[in-house]
Specification:
The protein is 4% helix and 42% strand. The chain is mainly beta.
């Protein structure tokens, strides 16, 4: 039926075109259409996509036979149809670091506790309520507000924290009392609480157990809490008209109100201790034990039983006679109680980690690397064993989902950061290592690790210790970028010959910076940008500001520094971008600067940057302000409409107009699905306009409308088409040339929308000039290139 309808109105298409299209093609109209998004509500969040990892799970809870599992800052559960549903920042779950979760069957809410004391309450309809009582009102140091455990009784939830116990009333969904139960009313860590026989038991951080009458209205008074046992205990749980306790001697005991009875032995300190309706479940790092009320151990599952790869355990539960184990590496393990050997893994598709560092979008894949370095370019992990990070490389495509190059295949290359694809051979990829050199991939298989041993005298170099240690190898490579000739340029930190090139002929060349740079031996570098003249723009960290170099002009170097030497606000240049009009945008540790044209390098003897001055209304007065004054600019990315996406340290992401005078979006954790305000890297899909954000707490994307313009109008397409009643988004018209003119009419030729493209895509909200929603029907889309010579027509069906 649909095909027949389109065929029928094709017969009148020519007449409409003659009446409306050709007069339109002779005119030029400029309409700036600003699509301002309020990042709240499920409808708006359809513009966002989350790409979270669920390998590392730290907490579990259950709702009947449904198990909820929590990663660092997201949740998932399996629906009855087998589909894995995720709850992430895109759904409003703006977690900090999840430490405990609990589902209340009586009130049908899911409680999510965090390391900073934030309590999130997920309602039955999926909305998320933020309860900041602990975060903002409990007068203890921020580092002591961790929520360790939830225990529900009689409409109240008792939150075990690092300072004591807080009470959350489920009826009002508000905090009420806080109990400091340490000696003399001191703050003390509480591991777990349980209620049994009208008494509330609290296992304390010093492994003692205190108790009090749960109905006592004066529990805020520490003297109402008495010592139950001075031994060393790890956990307490009510279970089938009794209570069970786990002791530091490695045994689980039943408490009958007067004495303890041994139930079973574990032999290891627990990480998680809980009971279900029928079972006692105890988790250590190496084993999970499930016992019945009589103390008979039905399951004793060890990490060695899982053979595909090494794992550690964080929590476990039993639902519908199935054991679920939260692991630190492979998501959720599940197996029937009766058949532990029938183990399978359960987790949504996603990357390996929630700490992406650098991104690279190719034609069909998104690559993610994790080998981070610090703000001062230190690649060493500050935690034991104090080595540079050894992580896999992930890549995503829409057909296959997530895949990886595992750590066993990366030739032991550590701190893998920037990735670049050979423009003349898409199957050849180079990945910089900020410790080991450069890793070469061929057809996604690591084949060569370039280092000081195989690149010759003009190749890669290791930094030298004082005094020298020939056995120490530390090759810090960053800033990979291809020029128009197909040569690969890079920087090598902590050496005199810090600028290097790998020619497409296979030859290596180094440039000695000893008499050019200030102390090149100590310099570190950001990501290189190369302009259309093959000038290399190189951010430096320590003393040289922004460096511009072009070997085609007698190895010419120019420096943009502070003061009269370039007007930068800081010598610490974090990033540089060349926009679509060949302007240079410079992000520093203390603000933003621009150069009006990269071409100025060719003839200039020096370069002076300038700030972008904007007008802001402050206290009713219009004041001139410097854009991003004194802000740490982490990354700048230019989209197809020449707009700039700018990441600021701890301040989220801004989208500004091509000249920087207008802020179009400001995305933060507070007003958008960004899981963190620290965005390490921004990458744009030039075909679809999707903008990817690598934050320190996960990867998300925003479906922006600015794509790279096409060379002609041959590939213009419209989506979605048809627009069905349930669709609440906009219609996208993509594949446009820059400054193409678009007019949309109904079938009778009445104009309902017109605009001029900035980039390769425009959006239509299916209204008549923003006044009212257009009716069902077929709408004609007339498109003309800027010069009016090339034209095309498309159509879209709208069904209300």
């Amino acid at each position: 039926m649909r095909g027949g309808f389109f065929y029928a109105f094709d017969m009148i298409l020519r007449n409409i075109a003659l009446r409306y299209y050709y007069p339109f093609a002779m005119k030029k109209h400029l309409l700036i259409f600003l699509f301002l998004v309020q990042c709240v509500g499920a409808q708006t969040n359809r513009l966002w996509q989350g790409y979270f990892s669920f390998n590392q799970l730290g907490a579990l809870t259950q709702r009947g036979t449904t198990v909820y599992a929590a990663s660092e800052n997201a949740l998932f559960f399996q629906k009855p149809d087998g589909f894995l549903e995720t709850i992430t920042s895109v759904n409003g779950l703006k977690a900090e670091n999840i430490t405990a979760i609990h589902y209340s069957e009586a009130f049908q809410v899911l409680l999510v506790g965090n390391s900073n004391g934030l309590l999130l309450v997920i309602q039955a309809d999926g909305t998320v309520a933020f309860k900041n009582g602990i975060l903002t009102e409990v007068p203890v140091p921020a580092g002591q507000k961790r929520i360790n455990h939830f225990s529900e009784f009689d409409g109240k939830v008792y939150l075990s924290t690092d300072y004591g116990i807080s009470v959350f009333n489920l009826n009002q969904q508000e905090f009420s009392d806080t109990y400091y139960i340490g000696d003399g009313g001191a703050q003390t860590r509480v591991i777990q609480t349980t209620v049994y026989n009208n008494s509330i038991y609290a296992v304390m951080g010093n492994f003692r157990i205190k108790k009090a009458a749960v109905t006592n209205p004066f529990l805020i008074d520490f003297s109402q809490w008495v010592l139950h046992d001075s031994g060393f205990w790890y956990g307490a749980q009510a279970f089938q008209n009794q209570s069970v306790f786990f002791n530091a001697d490695g045994n689980v005991y039943r408490w009958n109100g007067t004495s303890y009875t041994l139930l079973f032995s574990v032999g290891q300190p627990p990480i998680d201790f809980r009971t279900t309706a029928d079972y006692i479940v105890l988790t250590t790092a190496q084993k999970v034990m499930v016992a019945n009320a009589a103390g008979v151990v039905l399951v004793n599952y060890n990490t060695s039983n899982y053979t595909p790869q090494p794992v550690t355990f964080n929590a476990a539960t039993v639902a519908d006679e199935t054991v679920y184990i939260a692991t630190n590496e492979v998501g959720l393990l599940q197996f029937p109680i009766s058949a532990p050997s029938n183990v399978t893994t359960l987790k949504p598709d996603g990357p390996d980690l929630n700490q992406p560092f650098r991104l690279k979008k190719t034609e069909d894949k998104l690559f993610v690397t994790y080998g981070r370095f610090s703000f001062t370019y230190d690649p060493y992990n500050p935690n034991p064993p104090f080595q540079p990070y050894l992580f896999p490389i992930n890549y995503f495509d829409k057909e296959q989902g997530w895949s990886k190059i595992p750590t066993t295949d990366v030739l032991n290359a550590r701190s893998l950061t920037s990735l670049v694809v050979n423009p003349s051979n898409a199957n050849e990829i180079f990945v910089s290592s900020y410790f080991s050199g450069i890793l070469k991939l061929e057809d996604l298989v690591p084949t060569t690790l370039f280092n000081q041993t195989n690149t010759g005298a003009n190749g890669l170099e290791s930094l030298q210790l004082t005094p020298p240690d020939p056995s120490y190898v530390d090759i810090r490579i960053n800033g990979l970028a291809y020029d128009s000739r197909g040569d690969l340029w890079l920087t090598n930190a902590y050496v005199d010959k810090g600028l290097k090139v790998f020619r497409k002929t296979g030859q290596w060349q180094s440039y000695d910076l000893t008499n050019i740079f200030t102390e090149p031996f100590f310099e570190r570098y950001g990501q290189i940008a190369i302009d259309k003249n093959n000038t290399k723009w190189i951010p430096t960290y320590r003393a040289n500001g922004l460096v511009a170099f072009n070997e085609n002009y007698s190895n010419k170097f120019l420096f943009v520094k502070t003061g009269t030497e370039g007007n930068l606000p800081s010598l610490d240049v974090r990033c540089v971008a060349i926009d679509n009009r060949n302007q240079v945008w410079i992000g520093t540790a203390r603000g933003l600067r621009t150069l009006s044209s990269a071409d100025a390098f060719i003839n200039a003897e020096s370069l002076q940057s300038r700030p972008i001055i904007i007008n802001e209304i402050i206290n009713g007065q219009t004041l001139a302000q410097e854009l991003f004054f004194e802000q740490v600019v982490l990354d700048i990315c230019v989209d197809g409409a020449n707009r700039k996406w700018v990441s600021l340290a701890d301040s989220g992401v801004f989208l500004v107009s091509p000249n920087g005078q207008e802020t179009i979006y400001q995305f933060t954790k507070e007003n958008s699905p960004l899981p963190s305000n620290t965005v390490n890297d921004i990458e744009i899909d030039g075909t679809t306009g999707e903008v990817f954000f690598a934050t320190e707490k996960g990867l998300v994307s925003f479906k922006a409308n600015a794509t790279a313009p096409s060379d002609d109008l041959a590939s213009v397409f419209v989506y979605p088409n048809p627009v069905r009643p349930e669709y609440a988004g906009t219609v996208k018209i993509a594949g446009l040339t820059d400054k193409a003119v678009i007019k949309i009419t109904d079938i009778e030729g009445n104009l309902v929308f017109e605009t001029t493209a900035a980039g390769g895509t425009i959006e239509w909200d299916t209204t008549a000039f923003g006044k009212y929603r257009v009716a069902s029907g077929v709408y004609m889309i007339f498109i003309s290139a800027q010069d009016g010579i090339e034209t095309t027509v498309r159509k879209v069906m709208i069904i209300r």
